[in-house]
Design goal:
The chain is mainly α. About 65% of the residues lie in helices and about 0% in strands. The protein is built from seven helices and two strands, in the order αααββαααα. Strands 1-2 form a two-stranded antiparallel ribbon. Strand 1 and strand 2 form a beta hairpin. The mean pLDDT is about 85.
Length: about 210
């Protein structure tokens, strides 16, 4: 298995979390989140298998790990008898269920997913790329595509596990809006933290040989 410096702790934490949450969800017959554990495991395997070909910054891998932990915790933990995913963090509206823990996880998670799409596409992009607006549209759309895939997974989950707490059309719409906010924030972070890529002096080989 190919691993860069600092990546082994990330993998270990993910494996421990997946085992512990799997045991918890199975013990509580929470089959909705058993499916989500399977989805996370699948994408973890994909990241491991492509790690030698795609430069995934450790910061991004940590962000994806935090996202997984936030997601699984949202289905496992309860505060005052209310599932974490259903808790209103900041009551911003009398008509809409915002701002919920659910939307926070979507903003953070699909922001990380958008950044992931950038690093997947990065080897195919021209160094010193000048049309950042066009790139913004592409990676934002890619991040939202993952968000749409997530909604499909939630729909399948609601069919397989009718008693799941996925929610209806309003929940899906709010999720997608949160995904968009996360994607836009991710683009801003990418522009600031990876500014060297947009420089004409950028050398792709430097990343491949780095730790």
């Amino acid at each position: 298995m190919y691993a860069r410096k600092g990546q082994l702790p990330i993998l270990i934490i993910n494996l421990i979390a997946l085992v512990l949450f799997s045991v918890h969800f199975l013990a509580n017959a929470n089959y909705e989140f058993v499916l989500y554990v399977g989805v996370i495991t699948f994408f973890l395997i994909v990241l491991v298998l492509t790690n030698s070909k795609v430069y995934y910054p450790n910061g991004l891998l940590w962000a994806l790990t935090v996202w997984a932990l936030l997601h699984l915790s949202g289905g496992a933990l309860y505060l005052n008898g209310e599932r974490l995913y259903d808790i209103i963090l900041i009551p911003l509206s009398d008509k809409l269920p915002i701002f919920r823990y659910d939307q926070l996880v979507h903003i953070f998670g699909f922001g990380a997913a958008t950044a992931l799409m950038f690093y997947v596409l990065k080897p195919l992009l021209r160094p010193g790329i000048e049309r950042f607006t066009a790139l913004t549209i592409v990676i934002t759309a890619a991040g939202l595509g993952i968000g749409a895939l997530n909604e499909i997974v939630e729909f399948i989950t609601s069919v397989i596990v009718p008693e799941s707490g996925v929610g209806g059309y309003l929940n899906t719409s709010l999720d997608l809006v949160a995904d968009l906010i996360g994607a836009i924030l991710a683009v801003g972070v990418i522009r600031v933290t990876d500014r060297k890529f947009f420089s004409k002096k950028y050398q792709p080989a430097a990343e491949k040989t780095g730790s």
